[in-house]
Design brief:
It is built from twelve helices and 13 strands. It has a four-stranded mixed sheet, sandwiched between helices. Strands 4-13-8 form a three-stranded mixed sheet. Helix 6 (178-191) crosses helix 8 (265-273) and helix 9 (276-284) runs antiparallel to helix 10 (296-308). 38% of the residues lie in helices and 13% in strands. It has helices spanning 2-31, 41-59, 65-70, 92-106, 130-137, 178-191, 212-220, 265-273, 276-284, 296-308, 340-348, 389-399; strands spanning 116-123, 144-150, 196-203, 207-208, 225-228, 262-264, 313-315, 319-320, 351-355, 363-367, 369-370, 373-374, 380-381. The chain is of the alpha/beta class and 402 residues long.
Length: 402
């Protein structure tokens, strides 16, 4: 009984309260005045801002990764680059090449108690500057070796440092792959001596720009190879590329550079081990190839090492050549050209320059950094006529001072 009485009492109280509540609400609603409608200016401002923003975004596509996810346009790329496509599957030969190169590069070279520099001369015959090189070598007999590849006739040597230093040679034709074959032949012979730790390719018209100690320290106390390497988008650079080199050599990897290199022992061994890319260039980078002239001595090493060990390259040659005349061959120096100022100016150059073969002839300039420090770029120079020997001997002790 007690439980049934309480609910009925509560219901009565509830019904008694509701009419009074509704009456109060009606009175309040009648007594409160409704404010006049205001013009929605903030909505107009917001819509205007969004419209302006969308117009700007359309004409100036966003370039950052965050905004690219918010907007879609034909010009929108992450950090200005197209997203990378799927990696190409390597051929069996490429895989084998990568394995060999990586194993060589990660294996520290054998430490020699008597590390030497191999000076490798690529010449058609007699070397006109042997007497100058003798002045350069004298007193450092335990720090260098000499190798001579004479492609046309047996040299007549006047310096004791060159006697009996000829290797088996084959004919070399300018612009042909035989130039690269001769370079590899010189390297192979120089590698037979385990003390040789650095290898310099020189021509019969090359001269030293510094004294021996300076050159030795410059080459032996850095861990890079001085192989010239740059991108030339013009007809004498990328224009020489052939699609026959695919899939191993893509156009984006094709590089150009001077043939006159200086390389560390690890890179010399890597070059000896390479047959895949060596063969590609032998077959498809040659004169009169698909209506274009390709010269392997200017492209094989820069392209190969840029693909295999780009961080191991200095990207310039330590041999100075003057291409400012824009001809097929570099400037050659006569006796009247050889002065103290000329030689000192060359030795003081601290920036590497390249000129592309496009119509606009871009000038590419980069500082020569030796172990992170800006240093003079060149240790040797060419092309000097044989007639300049006397003048060079007179000036040698002066212009080679550091």
């Amino acid at each position: 009984m007690r439980g049934s009485v309480l609910p009925s009492v509560q219901m009565k109280k509830s019904f008694a309260w509701r009419p009074q509540l509704m009456k109060d609400i009606m009175i309040m609603s009648k007594s409160r005045p409704r404010p006049p409608l205001k013009r929605p200016t903030w909505i107009i401002a917001l819509v205007s801002f969004v419209c302006v923003f969308l117009i700007v975004a359309y004409f100036y596509p966003p370039r950052s990764s965050a905004t690219c996810y918010l907007f879609s346009s034909s010009g929108c790329t992450v950090f200005g680059k197209d997203p990378p496509g799927p990696a190409r599957e390597l051929t069996d030969d490429e895989t084998a090449s990568d394995v060999v190169v990586k194993e060589i590069l990660k294996t520290p070279p054998l430490q020699s108690k008597n590390p030497k520099i191999a000076f490798m001369f690529l010449t058609p015959g007699t070397l006109p500057f042997e007497e100058l090189w003798e002045n350069f070598f004298q007193g450092h007999e335990d720090k260098f070796t000499v190798y001579v590849h004479a492609s046309k006739q047996k040299p007549v040597h006047v310096s004791r440092y060159f006697v009996d230093r000829d290797i088996h040679s084959e004919q070399v034709v300018w612009g042909k792959f035989s130039m690269v074959e001769a370079e590899k032949r010189l390297l192979a012979n120089a590698l037979l001596d385990p003390d040789n730790q650095h290898f310099v390719l020189l021509s019969d018209s090359c001269i030293p720009l510094h004294n021996f100690d300076y050159v030795y320290n410059y080459l032996m106390y850095t861990n890079v190879s001085f192989i010239d390497c740059f991108v030339d988008p013009g007809p004498h650079g990328t224009g020489r590329y052939s699609e026959h080199m695919l899939p191993e050599v893509e156009k984006k990897d094709f590089r150009k550079g001077s043939q006159w290199f200086s390389m560390k022992r690890q890179h010399a061994i890597v070059m000896m081990a390479d047959s895949l890319y060596y063969t590609k260039f032998k077959l498809y980078c040659r004169p009169n190839m698909d209506g274009r002239n390709c010269y392997s001595d200017e492209h094989y090493l820069p392209t190969f090492f840029q693909m295999k060990d780009p961080s191991g390259l200095a990207n310039w040659s330590v041999t100075y050549v003057d291409w400012s005349e824009g001809k097929w061959h570099p400037r050659a120096y006569r006796t009247q050209d050889v002065t103290y100022d000329l030689l000192r100016n060359i030795t003081s150059i601290a920036e590497s320059t390249h000129i592309t073969s496009e119509d606009k002839k871009q000038l590419l300039t980069t500082p020569c950094l030796w172990n992170g420090m800006k240093r003079p770029c060149f240790l040797f120079a060419r092309k000097f006529y044989p007639e300049t020997l006397g003048k060079l001997l007179q000036l040698f002790s002066n212009y080679t001072k550091v």
